[in-house]
Amino acid sequence: MSSELQEIEELIARMALKDRASFRTLYSRTSAKLFGVILRVLDDRAEAEDVLQDVYVKIWNNADRYLANGLSPMTWLISIARNAAIDRKRRARHSTSGDVLTATLADPAPGPETMAIRASERDRLDGCFGELDHQHADAVRRAYLEGDTYAELAERYNVPLNTMRTWLRRSLLKLRECLSR
Amino acid sequence: MSGTTPDPNDDVVLAGEYTLSLLPEEELAAFEVRLASEPELRRICAIWAEEFSGFADDVKPVTPTEDVLTRVEMRLFGESAPGRRAGLWQRFGLTGLAVAVLAVLLFVSSDFLDQGPVPPETPAYTAEIAAEDRSLVVEAAYDAENAELYVERLAGEAAEGRALELWLIAGENAPVSLGVLPQEDRTVFTVTPELQDTLPGGVLAISDEPEGGSPTGAPTGAVLATGPITGA
Q1: Nearest beta carbon to residue A96 from set B24, B49, B131
Q2: Residues of chain A contacting B71 with CB distance shorter than 8 Å
Q3: In this structure, are residues A33 and A75 in contact, taking their beta carbons and an 8 Å threshold?
Q4: What is the pTM assigned to this prediction?
């Protein structure tokens, strides 16, 4: 992990001890990135700023649940931002999608097999995406970055919903296979 | 994919769909129940999240207006805004005497109020069942002597016309309903001897259900909050 990420991890650890100065530092280091992530899902700037507020409240309140586990602390932060933005976009009253995931990311260290899978560099991800059909790779990326649903993706690529799901599920399997190589 | 043979790859795919927020609602609820009790599944999701977060590298950072930090700090610490230091009492215009009277009233009346069930003094196990954003927080304490689980709702409530149902998830077992949380903040659930043995290491979860609780005996709505049971 780079020293920059280590520093972010330390900031979260100090926030767990209710250190407000660390919160401010973390905000200044990460808010532009998280705001960018939220804006990809929500086009409306005012709404995105509203979600950004909620996200940092959440980060502060859950800092003590974050455990350094070898996964990038940015994954944790980005997941909180992305999931909050998608919840807002779908306006699902009870949507907890992602809430459990965010807690999940604070699990203790992954096993050795996991660590092998995740010696993950950007090149590797790009390489594996390059092996997918272009449209299929694009669909996975859209689901992640724009928060598109199966219905939205099916409409975009003009295929039946079931076909869309089959594409995507196959792509996930291929990705998994490629990423574990 | 339409076959009925269990496929280990299926969990990898399901976890990927979950991480991409693609699971249809009915599958989502079932998956989240499994997540609460299956560490391996959580690990797979974590790996996907780590992989997918690489997409965010391409996202252009955008600086939010300065106002956002101010508002967040106001919400969290309530003191960033200058000139907002007047105490609660002044703002409500209460004089010292009024405060004293109020304090006595509160003290006296609390004696007469029926507080409902009280927490066990020496619980064998405890759990905090909380939503990620703490919009729902419930504390549970198990009184081994009376085989009773004391439950207190500290934050959140059931949605209009819905109910909150408490589940015990032990290991790989299917969730077992402990009951529907009442309107009152505090309540006590009786725990059968068979269930009692599965408490340590188990997980308590609260799901959103129709009024009166799940009609099927298994969670049907979203899992709103979870918490591990720990020795007190």
Answers
A1: B131
A2: 53
A3: no
A4: 0.62
